[in-house]
Amino acid sequence: xxxxxxxxxxxxxxxxxxxxxxxxxxxxxxxxxxxxxxxxxxxxxxxxxxxxxxxxxxxxxxxxxxxxxxxxxxxxxxxxxxxxxxxxxxxxxxxxxxxxxxxxxxxxxxxxxxxxxxxxxxxxxxxxxxxxxxxxxxxxxxxxxxxxxxxxxxxxxxxxxxxxxxxxxxxxxxxxxxxxxxxxxxxxxxxxxxxxxxxxxxxxxxxxxxxxxxxxxxxxxxxxxxxxxxxxxxxxxxxxxxxxxxxxxxxxxxxxxxxxxxxxxxxxxxxxxxxxxxxxxxxxxxxxxxxxxxxxxxxxxxxxxxxxxxxxxxxxxxxxxxxxxxxxxxxxxxxxxxxxxxxxxxxxxxxxxxxxxxxxxxxxxxxxxxxxxxxxxxxxxxxxxxxxxxxxxxxxxxxxxxxxxxxxxxxxxxxxxxxxxxxxxxxxxxxxxxxxxxxxxxxxxxxxxxxxxxxxxxxxxxxxxxxxxxxxxxxxxxxxxxxxxxxxx
Length: 489
What we know:
Distance between the termini: 21 Å
Oligomer: single chain
Number of strands: 4
Strand content: under 5%
């Protein structure tokens, strides 16, 4: 393989994949574009996913545990009060001085609260283990992939349609598996319908309590509309900002989405946490969104609006721009965006074909490897280079937390940013992570082998020199992981 061909293979692994790993250059071969496209034909399902609970079951499991914790705490408080009353009635406090009564009551209250806390803590919270199991399976899929192009697409769409585990931890991993991964290479409209109708998204964007002013529930409860889901779908998920929709469109769309909710876990132990349409919450009558009237009376009204948003020309441009920015450059080539937008429109939003249009375009390959990797991309690339395929999810998620990109925990519905300015100030923290990781694996990972075999020597001469002159394997590995060859793509 010529030097130029080898360089293109390494670029493919960095720019479109998860980074080189042992054997990946051979797996790509002499046709990196063809290898990227071929990976899109392989199943995206996670191995061992059957061991993880579906989102509704995970939600019920956590809700049931929380209910038992609350009951235990209440029982402990009641028992503490009985003991205090018995102690007071026995005369033990009869001679207590009046000035000491307030202090005594405070101590009794503290003791009751401590007893309640201990009783609740006796029932473990199942949400954290479920989250870690999901994180482990997702991360190991990225580590095991030959290239990781398909996995990167899953990560992209999961961030585009993000939720936050800070708000709905039990469903965070299952949401990605069920709604995003299952549709990441299908049609955009199907992906959109899946994510917006998923209970995790409805919970995250506060749609559960949204009700039309003239709905049965709205009249009886004197509560009203929540516009979050309508605004975020238009602004972030489909059309993009400043694309012609008005506040009236947002309000009408929010009314359309009333009634999209989930089954309360306490109301139905078998189906709690699943999607349901509740007509008592739904604003009756037709609604006008972007100049079109929607007269449906049930969940089909919302689905009809979503289908039209998916087919809107602004959505094609918005999605193509975000994809190109994520994979290629902070300021993606306009010609590339135009090609991907055209593919979106001509294929009715076929996400596989849009990805193919991207990697088939010469514009996607011309830019130098200058785009700063997000922390999650850098971490998984670092681990892949060593050949490790299994991770401790506590350490892994802790590292992402330290770097400012905790898994499934973006600070806002717009997800994590994809530009260098948002991440450059945190590069210094990567040194701590690189040093800690290098220390743990220095006995098994050879930095020279990574340079020569994993990267096929496609690393800057000064980096090779620094690695060769390092005082220890740990230092050499840390220098390698912190080099531009690892940081940028």
